[in-house]
Write the structure tokens for this entry.
Amino acid sequence: MVASQLSVHAKYGGVVPELASREHLRAVVPVVREAMSQAGLGWADIDAVAATSGPGLAGALLVGLTYAKAISFATGIPLIAVNHIEGHIHAVILEAAQRGTPVEFPALALIVSGGHTHLFEASGAGGYRLLGRTRDDAAGEAFDKVAKLIGFGYPGGPVIDRLAPHGNPHAIRFTAAKMKGNTLDFSFSGLKTAVLRWVESHDMTAEIAARKELLRVNPVPSTEEWLAVTPRATLDLVASFQRTVVDELLRHAVNAADQLEGVRTLIVSGGVACNSGLRAAVNTNSIGIPVYFPSPGLSTDNAVMIAAAAFPKFRRQAFASLDAAAEPNLALA
Ligand code: KG4
Ligand code: ZN
């Protein structure tokens, strides 16, 4: 059972916080009812109710957490507060266990989404150590901003992913940011600026207008429709941009795997983990340890990952109180 509000935000070129909370409010009760009816479950069958307490947009977090608290209060079912990033990690742990190839620990976890680009070391027992994070934009944010800049709408990651194979990923050389201090930190704002410079020095006005017009008449264009309004040079730009992001992510994963002796697996999760260029690069480059991706449906935000992260807490009886707060900047480690 999935409620999507992407179409609500698409026309604004990004997530509008007020609209996000309103859509959550509109969807939360019907979605929970529908999911329970599809599963044939009533409240008496439920052992605990889990909700994301952070990080994320305050309004959206409040809707989910308040609803979960209300259920807990009314039914006596215990409440579990889950960290959103831990959810992305558990999407992978859950699916790997279901496949009969459980993730072995300690694991590296690369979480790449619209809000996060974080590298953690995860111990099996639920402990996390932050190894590196973005100092500016998240990887997904870079995809979204570049896509918006050149008229591909929002969210940009999936469109760039589909068009990148039609361009030459080596056509434009974007240089990776040199990190002072922690070399496992990321930075994508320089790349974003480099793309902006490239766009400014090429006359893309007509093609951008054509893409915006396409989006106006058809909010979800097919790859062929995009290709019809995207010249070769722009496909090269898109492919080169994606390659640079993928190379950065891969380089950090390889460096972390080298630096941390004893790390046994790599987990890649979050919306950008859907990216086929990233999946292909990770699978063809030897990182030296097994790599686990979530299935595409569990890569982007979903409730299964929150339930999966809640389960070990349930076993430890690590319940939250009814005055648990929504924490927009909640850290995992
Ligand atoms: O995890 P997620 O659903 O939400 C956040 O927690 O942010 O990630 C959404 C992000 C967006 O920035 C979107 O453009 C990006 O994931 N994304 C992709 C792909 N699919 C989604 N980025 C690159 N390639 C994709 N195939
Ligand atoms: Zn997410």
Remarks:
- The chain has a mean pLDDT of 95.
- The pocket of KG4 (ligand 1) is lined by residues 113-115, 140, 143-144, 155-158, 161, 270-272, 274-275, 300-301 (CB under 6 Å).
